[in-house]
Amino acid sequence: MEPTTARSMTINYLLPDDVLADVLGRLPPRSLAAARCVCAAWRATIDDRRLLRTDLLPLSLAGIFIHFDDLRFPEFFSRPSTPTTPAISGKLDYMPNKYALYAVNDHCNGLLLLYTHVVNPATRRCVTLPLLPPSRGTFSDNYIVFDPTVSPHYEVIRISYLMCNMRLDPIIRESEWPPSPFLLNVFSSSTKQWEDRLFVREGEAAGTIGDLVKLYSRQHYAAYWHGALYVHRCNYVTRLSLTDGKYKVIKNPQDIDMSKCLKFYLGKSENGVYLASLEQELDLQLSVWILNESCAKAKWVLKHRNNLKPLLSRWGYHQVNGPWILHDVNYDLYRKNFGGPWFYNVTYDDLLLEGNNEVPVEDKYEWYSDNDDVDHDTQDGVEEQSHVSISLLGFHPYREIVFLSLSCERGVAYHLNSSKMQDLGSIFPQNFNQVSEVGGGIEASFPYTPCWIGEFPEISSEDHLYRN
């Protein structure tokens, strides 16, 4: 008999069942899963008491949060709920500040990071972040890391970046970026405080400040994978190890031409960290790489490359609605003022508070996310798509699928293994063309995996968004 098994049997005899269950129940899910393998008695206790609730973990895709220019709330584009799937509402009507602009900055394992709040849409709870003074000399973005299999706590990390054409001293322009050590502000939900944390660089920098300020990218997505945060900015990715205080720079794949008009999306998918680029000219070339860190130096491995323009020229959608549904959060909130001005200059006191709060339910559609054999390249009723504008909405977290937007009108699932496109439905917010500025489109988007655990306080009934 192995020592571990002997000790576990001794504990079983010494502790009553209720006490053992209470001790095991305090473990995080990942440790609880490991404890389940120790012996038959522990496995029976965990299974009989249902201590390991995998149904509460972020293991499924519920939809995509999309932030459109000039809209105050993010829209939620989602799979319809069914009797076997819990309903998720994209309406953030429980937020405490009714005058704020609720743009989503980041998402990680079920938690949304807004400018001043962390939100769990599944449990409809939120917490307010303490404010930090503005960064001096640089700009910054916030990112969130959360792994409920390890801990119920999360961290928010503020990372400085360089803005295009910043006016800098010539000496500073020759300095390396990111610097080493790299001083970052980190908020921990366990301490409820911001703290300064130093990260030391391993390897070379991304370049000089003078070279990097010439580049600009609107997208700044991040991915959290195996205890590290990956943040994409222009022509490099910063990998922050949150366990040992080290970071390294991973430059873009060598065959990316930064002189072209590119859109990027860094995200987590089936096999780790993925990077997608989309050229806006010529053939709308989509390229997808997977980050390989098995060797001493991380490198990007090309997974897929295809020109989408020929595919779009013979592909057409045939459904007016569905199978996915846009919740039209902003239209519902501004329904009373429909026909007149209904965005920034409208206060919440003017809103019709009895908007549609129900989550769309539509059982007759099915999304074949696990079936790449479905043929979507039919020629019947094809519409001309030669002038379509494409945006990257993100990666499916558990399937090799890229979500795309066609001219901010249709949501599409593009299967990397079959190069087939699947129409998911309309993503155009109702009457968005009456609200948006010329050229308005999608600011950011985040595939959402719901999580029903985490330490969040209840929202007081008098502090929610619709308080009069």
Automatic annotation (TrEMBL):
**SUPFAM superfamilies named among the record's database cross-references:** F-box domain (SSF81383)
Indicate the segments forming the F-box domain, all copies: 9-55
Q: Which Pfam families match?
A: F-box (PF00646)
Q: Which InterPro entries match?
A: F-box-like_dom_sf, F-box_dom
- The signal peptide, as residue positions, is none
PANTHER family linked: OS03G0653100 PROTEIN (PTHR34591:SF32), OS03G0653100 PROTEIN-RELATED (PTHR34591)
**Per its record, how is this protein called by name?**
F-box domain-containing protein
Organism annotation:
Oryza rufipogon (Brownbeard rice)
The opening ranks of the lineage are: Eukaryota, Viridiplantae, Streptophyta, Embryophyta, Tracheophyta
